[in-house]
Amino acid sequence: MPNRPYVIDEMISAKSIAARIEGLAKEIKREFAKTDKLVVVGLLRGSFVFIADLVRELDLPVEVDFLEASSYGDAMESSREVRILKDLRGQIEGRDVLVVEDIVDTGHTLSHVTEYLGTRHPGKLKTIALLDKPSRREVDFRADWIGFEIPDEFVVGYGIDFAQRNRNLPYIGKVRFT
Ligand code: IMP
C-alpha cells in the first residue's frame, strides 16, 4: 500500500513515449481527416499528460473535454463497478469522438465509458490508450489504438498515479516494493 516503501524502475522512457505518440497521431489524423471538429475526451485524471501531448501532435480542429469515471481509489485493484463522477461539458450527438485513456487493465472502465457515450449517438466513437495490459482483461474490450502493451505490473508516471503520487514523472516506471 502507499505507505509501504517502494522504488520505481523505468519501463518506458520519455523519448520512446514521444516517438510513439508521433506515430499514433499520424494514424489518428488519417482516421479523422474528414471530421469537422473532433471531440477529444480525456478520462480524468490519469490521461491528462497523454492527452496534452497527443492533441499537440494532431493538427486537426479539436475540442477537448473531460470525463471522470471511478477507478482504483487508493488501491492497486480495480473496483470493477464503474461510475461516472464528472460528465462531459459539451454535446457529442452526431460528433466524432476520440476517448483518451491512460491504461486498459481489466477493461471495465473503457467498456463502460464507451457504452455510456454511445447512448448519446455520437458519429465515430474511437478509443486510444497509452498502455494496455492484455493479460489482466476481464471483459472483452480492445482500444482502437494502443501505445504500448505491457506485462502485469503496477506502473506510475506520465500522468499515472499510485495513491495520487508520481503522476509528474516524465516516464513510465514500474513500482517495486522494497
Ligand atoms: P480497468 O477498468 O481495470 O481497465 O482500469 C483502468 C484504470 O485503472 C486506469 O484508468 C487506471 O486509472 C487504473 N490502473 C490500471 N492499471 C494501473 C497501474 O498499473 N497503475 C495505476 N493505475 C492503474
Notable characteristics:
Rossmann fold, alpha/beta, 6-stranded mixed sheet, binds inosinic acid, 178 residues, single chain
Question: Could you describe the 3D structure shown?
Answer:
The protein starts with 5 loop residues before the first strand and ends with a strand. Helix content is 22%, strand content 30%. Strand 2, helix 2 (48-57) and strand 3 (62-69) form a beta-alpha-beta unit. By secondary structure, it is an alpha/beta fold. It has helices spanning 14-31, 48-57, 108-118, and strands at 6-12, 38-44, 62-69, 84-86, 97-104, 125-132, 145-149, 155-156, 172-177. The longest helix is centred in the N-terminal third of the chain and has 18 residues, at 14-31. The chain has a single domain (6-30, 37-177), classed as Rossmann fold (3-Layer(aba) Sandwich). The site of inosinic acid has 16 residues, from strand 5 and helix 3.
Topology:
Layout: E1 6-12, H1 14-31, E2 38-44, H2 48-57, E3 62-69, E4 84-86, E5 97-104, H3 108-118, E6 125-132, E7 145-149, E8 155-156, E9 172-177
Parallel strand pairs: 2-3, 2-5, 5-6, 6-7
Antiparallel strand pairs: 1-9, 3-4, 8-9
The site of inosinic acid (IMP) has 16 residues, from strand 5 and helix 3.
